[in-house]
Amino acid sequence: DQQVKQNSPSLSVQEGRISILNCDYTNSMFDYFLWYKKYPAEGPTFLISISSIKDKNEDGRFTVFLNKSAKHLSLHIVPSQPGDSAVYFCAASALFQGGSEKLVFGKGTKLTVNP
Amino acid sequence: NAGVTQTPKFQVLKTGQSMTLQCAQDMNHEYMSWYRQDPGMGLRLIHYSVGAGITDQGEVPNGYNVSRSTTEDFPLRLLSAAPSQTSVYFCASSSVGGTEAFFGQGTRLTVV
User: A35 and chain B: CB distance < 8 Å anywhere?
Assistant: First the structure.
């Protein structure tokens, strides 16, 4: 049973436009959410996170939105750049409520930003 | 800064062979974990450790052993390699479990 779902395996956008990557979760115990970026032949790198007490967190071109009632989060990249082309993983943990040390990852979305 | 270091980067094993994937971190992190990445499957947790001497199973632990004798090192042992263990393996560490983790560059393992 997949607890973190990224239903779009791939996304293609034009340089300068907005990229929106989506993630849904089923476990209501999750209260901390993260996005990772992964280039080929490299390990994932942390991008941005949000706790369940917030509905938005912004860091430069990257903004994560959390809709707890819908159990949905999204990552917005504005403006998109060719260097953003990578696989993006959504992850979640029950950090505050459940005390779980585990990060649960989605399957990833491959973003391609075309020049 | 070294961060999380994994060795080897590539390995080919024959079915039934055993080997150890090494992972070391220099950030004094208590929490370490091992994931495998397979096409279309994302990152799946194999084993994790919340500190020296403490390990626990993740989502896909069968066929793997771990130990944590020091804070820095968290090796992953394949007891008897099977083709189903062909994958890319990532080690990660964090100061607190369930938060931002730092990943190594990965080990690409092929079992023939």
Answer: no
CA distance to partner chain B, nearest, from residue A13 (Å): 21
Label residue A100 by pLDDT band (50, 70, 90): low
Which pLDDT tens digit goes with each residue over B36-88?
Answer: 999 888 899 999 999 999 999 999 999 999 999 999 999 999 999 999 999 99
One DSSP character per residue, chain B reads ---EEEE-SEEEE-TT--EEEEEEESS--SEEEEEEEETTTEEEEEEEEEETTEEEE-SS-TTEEE--SSSSB--EEESS--GGG-EEEEEEEESSTTS--EE---EEEEE-
**Which region among A62-71, B47-56, B91-100 has the lowest average model confidence (pLDDT)?**
B91-100
Which residues on chain A are in Cβ contact (under 8 Å) with B96?
95, 101
